[in-house]
Amino acid sequence: xxxxxxxxxxxxxxxxxxxxxxxxxxxxxxxxxxxxxxxxxxxxxxxxxxxxxxxxxxxxxxxxxxxxxxxxxxxxxxxxxxxxxxxxxxxxxxxxxxxxxxxxxxxxxxxxxxxxxxxxxxxxxxxxxxxxxxxxxxxxxxxxxxxxxxxxxxxxxxxxxxxxxxxxxxxxxxxxxxxxxxxxxxxxxxxxxxxxxxxxxxxxxxxxxxxxxxxxxxxxxxxxxxxxxxxxxxxxxxxxxxxxxxxxxxxxxxxxxxxxxxxxxxxxxxxxxxxxxxxxxxxxxxxxxxxxxxxxxxxxxxxxxxxxxxxxxxxxxxxxxxxxxxxxxxxxxxxxxxxxxxxxxxxxxxxxxxxxxxxxxxxxxxxxxxxxxxxxxxxxxxxxxxxxxxxxxxxxxxxxx
Amino acid sequence: xxxxxxxxxxxxxxxxxxxxxxxxxxxxxxxxxxxxxxxxxxxxxxxxxxxxxxxxxxxxxxxxxxxxxxxxxxxxxxxxxxxxxxxxxxxxxxxxxxxxxxxxxxxxxxxxxxxxxxxxxxxxxxxxxxxxxxxxxxxxxxxxxxxxxxxxxxxxxxxxxxxxxxxxxxxxxxxxxxxxxxxxxxxxxxxxxxxxxxxxxxxxxxxxxxxxxxxxxxxxxxxxxxxxxxxxxxxxxxxxxxxxxxxxxxxxxxxxxxxxxxxxxxxxxxxxxxxxxxxxxxxxxxxxxxxxxxxx
Lengths: 401, 296
Prior knowledge:
A: mainly alpha, two-stranded antiparallel ribbon, two-stranded antiparallel sheet, globular, B: mainly alpha, 2 strands
């Protein structure tokens, strides 16, 4: 993420040698990262690709909830519900359905259209909740959105014609410009067989980049300022002419659309949607991600998403060689449980010792004397503070009135 | 009619248990402005201690230890984490309690595995008949205990020095501190009391007709969240009303689910949340909550 702001550039002055060097270094880092990302499917096996794809889907969802919780201060426990809406809506629109004893509905639309419609459906679902999302604030909304989880689970298990009930539904593969994102027909690139995961990898990268760019745009422009002001001082925001309720509802809709896209990606990777997955634990995972990564920023959401979704996979993979962690099913601390305990503790530790999350930590490591933060005249990363992009916002201790 | 009365009594009994949980939730919110999502895990911890200890110490001592343990655990969470977290917004503190909840719940469910633990309560599955209505004895005990505890708490809240300190803090923490009230003690005691109440509630969530303490118990406890918010998060009266509303709705919807078959199986579990949504649509601050004076 390049976060050189206009202010920072002006402060450093044009043609300053250090600045140019740093910019070159950053471009080099970006190019290297892009190369690595492109090279991954050619070298790593399916396990890592799948893990990576989960992380990408989680990153999109986390960016969405970070707009809502991190930037606007609205807690949502209902993110998993909107992921489910996205995933199931995609299947419903794309699958032709089947008749017979276990009749399952479906529209059989072209799959790219189904993706768009699924994201829109998630947005509409978020919009339907807006009478509540616009009026409640902070943790109140958190409890109210708990309802969505339970309602969602109820619907997923009971609305069998649409959701397939307990067994879920198979996800039809995406077809884009004649390319099918599935294992067949076979495709070999540079002696590497390109299956579904390899193909989805690139799609995932594009989607994450797009999602991140859009969110950055939102955060850096007028809406971002307004959202931060609502979070920091609701009344001040209202006095300055920000329509608080409309903004809250709007951000809620946007965040649910992000969740919907994440749900579609998840469905494409899993190739099957099952209702149990979209329970409360998933929502808690997303909240953990944004706190661990860093609240209120796109980079933080991505870092947190990678951390939370890769950790359990890593522990599972190496459970044999790690101390204290037992192989699954042998009675000790299983990798999944160890991962949950670890990132639960990480949430607490980050808030206690690392305000700003992993992103804040990175910034501080880079921000040695003369670093960017010092240039912008900011102290150490403030809790709940956005990236240096918006220099005007510092949180107030009191947000209740 | 008989069915209706039986459902109503059971609903009131469950509702009073939810009210206990919701009351703890509200106490913590009033004293520290933290929405404590770890409440379900405190409840689980209290219940777990009772379940593990009762074969060795007998039920009553185990219950006492369990209640003390949950209170202590809650106080520890406040002392070690909430007090030290230096954050700008209370939403972040709420997420911190979610972190605490993840850790405690994961560890406890791991310890429990797939077991269903009995709490060794002396009431068992005996029933009493009042008129034509058959009610489990333990449900009446639950109703009585909850009513007694809630009355006790409300009296203490109203008349003791501790209660006055608590109310003053809730009104205006800064002024209260200037008047010599030690905020640390107030919030520590609020957490401890809430934890203890949750442990008592755990007992009554795990007795007849539920089979015992298992990994699903914390989900049962989550139904107390809508109870707290639909009554109004800063109102003790609201917690009581909310608990009873949730309990009765749930019992009735579960009892009549054959007539409500078009809503799908297991509608009783969703009912508390549906009621909450309806009430929040009409009154965003809950039934008894303080309405915002500022409009934006």
